[in-house]
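Q: Fold this one first, please.
A: Sequence and structure below.
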Amino acid sequence: QVQLVESGGGLVQTGGSLSLSCEPSRNIYSFDHMGWYRQAPGNQREVVATLTASGLPVYADAVKGRFTISRNNAKNTLHLQMNSLKPEDTAVYFCHAYSRMGYWGQGTQVTVSS
C-alpha cells in the first residue's frame, strides 16, 4: 500500500506564498505521474498541477504563472510552490500519485485571507 505524506500549507494573506511537500512511501520515479489537486467547500476536487515521470509539468489555467510543481530527487519529494495567492485558492490540497491505480494523501489546508 502506497502512502503519501503531505506537509506545508497554513494561513497566508492575499499575495503571499506557501509551499507544499509530498513524500511517497516508495521511489518517486516508480509512478507514471504525480500531482496536486484541491477541493474547496461545496466544490468538486480539481486538478492544480501534474508532473509526469519524465518531468513534464501541466497546470490548471487558474494557477498558471503563480504555482510551480517540482520534484526533489534527492529527498524523494514532490513540491508545489504557490505564489501570489488569492482567496479563491483556499482549499484542502491533496497529493496524488498514479501507478496502475491512484493514491491520495490525507490533504492539507491552505487558507488565503483577503
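Q: Good. Now the second chain.
A: Here it is, same layout.
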Amino acid sequence: VQVAESGGGSVQSGGSLRLSCTVSGLTNSPFAMGWYRQAPGKEREYVATVNPGNTPSYGASVRGRFTISRNRARNIVDLQMNNLDPEGTGVYFCDVNYGAYWGQGIQVTVSS
C-alpha cells in the first residue's frame, strides 16, 4: 500500500492551500482516509477524516475553515484549507483506515 501526499507549500496568514492524498495498492473498500498535522516540537494533531460511509469529521481547531472530500473511485482525498493562520504550520500526514497506513508527510508553512 502506498500513500502519497501532494500540494503543500507556503502561504501568508489568511490564505488557502489544497492538499491531496492518493492511495494505491489497497483493494478492500470502503476505507477511511484522513489528515493529521504535526507542528515543530508538538505532538501529532488530528485534522480531519472521511469515514467509509463518506461522512466527514473535523478537529476543533480547523472546523469551519477546512473541508475534506474524497473521490472514492480514484482513492483520492483532498483537504481544502482556508483562512490559514501560523498555527497551521507543520507537516501534514495522510492516514488510511484510522492509522493502518501513513504517508510520509508534506510541509505547510503559514507566515504572519
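Q: Anything worth noting on the second one?
A: The two ends are 37 Å apart (CA to CA).
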